[in-house]
């Protein structure tokens, strides 16, 4: 059985994007950090995306075309391309990456079945889609990649109005001040 993991880069004040919708402040420019993120995702067999996160991540379908990419970036591109993707969108008419399928609605029972039928982990990516999974009690682990910046507002990592008891299972600090926190749900 796979675990469902919610993992995102956040500001210290808990935002995945600022009030202008920007998130470049969180791009991992540290090869050690990027390598650690690659390691965390190595067990993932399926990414669950909303439309906006999928469109952001499409970059990795063609990242090999960008000259002079560091090996750690090319490794992430390879991992991303080799992983199944399920895009939840009412507005997209098709998807343009390999190993990707489109579904119209987030279905908690379908995610439960995916978790039960796989030996790999799954991630739910993007705070809006993750909020649905959190409210349904589906998220087994939270990976918060905390950057040393305050953005003062925007889109929050955690949804409003939920209570989940967590156990800290790992933390790792990086030279640039980023801290990766891993929590397990107590459910």
TrEMBL record:
Domain named Bacterial bifunctional deaminase-reductase C-terminal: residues: 3-178
Gene Ontology terms for molecular function: 5-amino-6-(5-phosphoribosylamino)uracil reductase activity; dihydrofolate reductase activity
SUPFAM superfamilies reported for this sequence: Dihydrofolate reductase-like
Keywords: Oxidoreductase
Pfam family, one: RibD_C
Record-level GO BP terms: riboflavin biosynthetic process
Listed EC numbers: 1.5.1.3
Protein name listed in UniProt: Dihydrofolate reductase
Naturally occurring in which organism (per UniProt): Actinokineospora spheciospongiae
Taxonomic path: Bacteria, Bacillati, Actinomycetota, Actinomycetes, Pseudonocardiales
């Amino acid at each position: 059985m796979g675990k469902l993991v919610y993992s995102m880069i956040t500001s210290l004040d808990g935002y995945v994007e600022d009030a202008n919708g920007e998130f470049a402040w969180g791009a991992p420019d540290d090869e050690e950090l990027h390598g650690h993120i690659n390691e965390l995702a190595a067990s993932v067999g399926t990414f669950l995306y909303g439309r906006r996160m999928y469109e952001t991540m499409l970059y990795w379908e063609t990242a090999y075309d960008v000259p002079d990419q560091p090996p750690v970036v090319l490794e992430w591109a390879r991992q991303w391309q080799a992983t199944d993707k399920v895009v939840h969108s009412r507005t997209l008419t098709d998807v343009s990456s390999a190993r990707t399928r489109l579904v119209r609605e987030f279905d908690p029972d379908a995610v439960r079945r995916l978790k039960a039928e796989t030996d790999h982990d799954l991630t739910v990516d993007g705070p809006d889609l993750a909020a649905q999974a959190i409210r349904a009690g589906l998220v087994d682990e939270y990976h918060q990649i905390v950057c040393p910046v305050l953005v003062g507002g925007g889109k929050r990592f955690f949804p409003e109005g939920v209570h989940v008891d967590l156990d800290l299972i790992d933390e790792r600090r990086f030279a640039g001040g980023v801290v990766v926190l891993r929590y397990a749900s107590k459910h």
